[in-house]
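Recap quiz, item 2
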Amino acid sequence: MEKVKDWNYKVVEKIGQGVFGEVYKCLNLETGKKVAIKMINIQNEPEGVPSYLIAGVSLLKELEHDNIVRLLDVLTTGRYVYLVFEYLDLDLGSFIRKHTITSIRPHIKTILSQILVGLAYYHSHNILHGDLQPSNVLIDLKSKKVKLADFGLTTSFGVPHIEYSYKEVGSPYKAPESRIRSSVYSTPHDVWAVGCIFAEMVSGKPLFPCGKKDHLSLIVSLFGKPTKETWPGANYISDLLHSHPQCEPADLAEQLLGLGLEPPGVELLSRMISLNPTTRITARNALNHPYFKDSHSSLSSPHYEAFGFP
Amino acid sequence: ELAGRKSNESLSALRNCAYSSSIYKHLRSLEIEDKMRPLPNYMEKVQNDISINMRQTLVDWLVEVLEEYKLVSDTLYLTVSYVDRFLSSHALSRNKLQLLGVCCMLIASKYEEISPPHVEDFCYITDNTYMKEEVVEMEEKVLEFLNFEMGTPTTKSFLRIFTRVTEENCKKPDLLYEFL
């Protein structure tokens, strides 16, 4: 690593391993700031710098927002590309696992609104996130900021459809329309994922856990089988749903109210996880939802100070 | 031809009218950023071996390469923008100009095309004047110099938004693009 020109980082520890490379926590020796460096090996790339990197890094470079993890620098040697990202201590996934739902509850609004602000920024820049999930939502305890990250560098990254189709199986945060090959993969997809994250913050567990049952049947068991009314495009997936037994929609609203979510929150969530992508609320409109009416004041309230938890 | 757009239009966010005006604003602000623009007088100021005519010959040749490999016109606009941005601060000898041209087109294809041509294709089209290693090395140089900021908005990115907004039902947008 040290062979790179202008290299002034010290490796602290390895924090991750992905398909495309390793992620290290490092220290910027000049500023003393912590950074996350993703190291991508390109020495075996027969075509030079791979296109997902060119398209992906270009897009990331365009994103400059408080609620999005910054790509600070890109360094290259003949064999490696190093992406230097801002470093944050905690991700929302571990945050949810480490705390009880009652202690998370007071922070849901501020976390959710910051996720939506970041996402609206993505969308207004013609970019889809594509891989929103709690582990990609980072929390900075000091500044009390929530930032969207994307170290995956996979689909999310460039967004082209072809790469996307490789990842058919995958995240339980994917919207139902992603199961339809011919469907339009667009901004509502990200909003669905935010809805799942919202529900997870309220209940402390994933809305659609991965594992035993397949993703689509979990969705069906929650919403009932899509009808012409709930999702006019649903005939596309009728083949997929063929084997599913007819079932009554579960009463998610009641469960969530029982868990202490206010009625406007339930209403907002139901619009974020609307089966029909065309009627799903946009990130920007979600921010104007009555649920957030009093949240702006809470950003500076002493209540919010407890964000770090003892 | 329209099927070839990768980053710009397959991002169906554009289709989502809710955001099209802010997308337009963003593209516009990108377009006027200094780092996205070449120097208007780099031939006199920076270059000492290359002339305006040589650049013209290069661009004409790049158009032929584009047709040969059936690339979309966005790729050409991006290529020329990269070439000019690079030449705005690097004095290049004339025997490397064509190398810069193919490298920029290689990068633009990777950014824009669904299936970009191979490095070998670009060597072949120069009559193997340059080796694969040279192309790959130059590619890295260009990427590093342009800081991986390859998303320069092109005339076509704007035209796309305009045609969509004004003529939702326009059946012949392809024809409009031909006039570019």
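Chain B has a mean pLDDT of 82.
Chain B touches chain A through 38 residues (CB under 8 Å).
End of item.
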